[in-house]
DNA sequence: TCTCTCGCCACAGACGAG
DNA sequence: CCTCGTCC
DNA sequence: ACGTGTGGCGAGAG
């Protein structure tokens, strides 16, 4: 997923749309998150040895729950209020892209089988990462966990990113937190990247401001979408020889893809046959999303016993570990509201930002 | 020579004990 | 600080 | 039962 080279394009042509933010500034902020993407990544990485993952005795994979439980706790601990949005059905337009990926997967599966024969551990690990799948049941388990933790949860009718953008447009969340630049094509007012990286890499949060993108590029929404389609998106092929640089200059010159096509040297730059750029544009402009009319988002306290029953009872997590994690969460809750009060009354005491030692 | 695109590769969590 | 083993 | 994003590097075309 994504628009090829869009990050670099924006930092070249619209640097003002990007702003670094402190992690602390997200205290008490609501953000929409594409949960499916996170699940997918956890499945690839957590508890891996060869092609093994974390499982309970019944052989059910638990890597996704381990990852999501920890990450959700970290967010709540930091005072962030996440909404999880899950992917629905993929748009039919992804067909072409899909076929390609299936081929790649089949290749990886063959390579995996071969590596197993040969007992090549390194190759097994590499290939098994490329054949990861997230089942419907696994997604639903994460939904169940998220609800137990008191978060609002949505199943998007189609792509999760589009619904995240819709929640943001409706003012229900401050930003969509995603690594996927597609989100901006849906006119999402604010996109936050690296939201969870302070722990992993120490990168600051990077915000993209949609209005500033249009202002600095001096383009309309439609023109920006056309640039993204030319750069290369999931919905259709792009023109060979045209990348981010030419995409911007061509749209600046001609205004839209239709006009551009009339002037393009199709000898040098062959346009794909049956190129459905109009349909792609339509998907960005009018995606199928959750209905936000009269919608209210509510966060409630985690249901500790419910979580224990699920994770410990069914999935064989260590009870002490689970309860400990939830305890830390409770403690942090008091602290974060205290911070909020302090800043409300003007007592700006942001001190221990680096090493959070517990108080004596 | 420089610019741009493309293809191939690598990589990806979070915790806590020591 | 870090590396490394473990999480299920 | 659909499935990534990113950066780096070198090749090749213009």
TrEMBL record:
Cofactor(s) demanded:
Mg(2+)
Sorted alphabetically, which SUPFAM superfamilies does this protein's record hold? 5' to 3' exonuclease, C-terminal subdomain (SSF47807), PIN domain-like (SSF88723)
Q: One of this protein's Pfam families, by short name?
A: XPG_I
Which InterPro entries does UniProt cross-reference here? 5-3_exonuclease, 5-3_exonuclease_C_sf, Flap_endonuc, HhH2, PIN-like_dom_sf, XPG-I_dom, XPG/Rad2, XPG_CS
Assigned keywords, A-Z: Coiled coil, DNA damage, DNA repair, DNA replication, Endonuclease, Exonuclease, Hydrolase, Magnesium, Metal-binding, Mitochondrion, Nuclease, Nucleus, Phosphoprotein
5'-3' exonuclease domain span: 29-298
GO MF terms here are: 5'-3' exonuclease activity; 5'-flap endonuclease activity; DNA binding; metal ion binding
Q: Which residues belong to any copy of the XPG N-terminal domain?
A: 1-108
Coiled-coil spans in chain:
98-125
Stretches assigned to the XPG-I domain: 147-219
Q: Which domain of life is it from?
A: Eukaryota
User: Which GO biological process annotations does it have?
Assistant: DNA repair; DNA replication
Question: Subunit structure of this entry?
Answer: Interacts with PCNA1 and PCNA2. Three molecules of FEN1 bind to one PCNA trimer with each molecule binding to one PCNA monomer. PCNA stimulates the nuclease activity without altering cleavage specificity.
| Sequence similarity | Belongs to the XPG/RAD2 endonuclease family. FEN1 subfamily.
Outline what the protein does. Structure-specific nuclease with 5'-flap endonuclease and 5'-3' exonuclease activities involved in DNA replication and repair. During DNA replication, cleaves the 5'-overhanging flap structure that is generated by displacement synthesis when DNA polymerase encounters the 5'-end of a downstream Okazaki fragment. It enters the flap from the 5'-end and then tracks to cleave the flap base, leaving a nick for ligation. Also involved in the long patch base excision repair (LP-BER) pathway, by cleaving within the apurinic/apyrimidinic (AP) site-terminated flap.
The record ties this protein, via HAMAP family, to: Fen
Q: What is this protein called?
A: Predicted protein
Gene source species: Micromonas pusilla (strain CCMP1545)
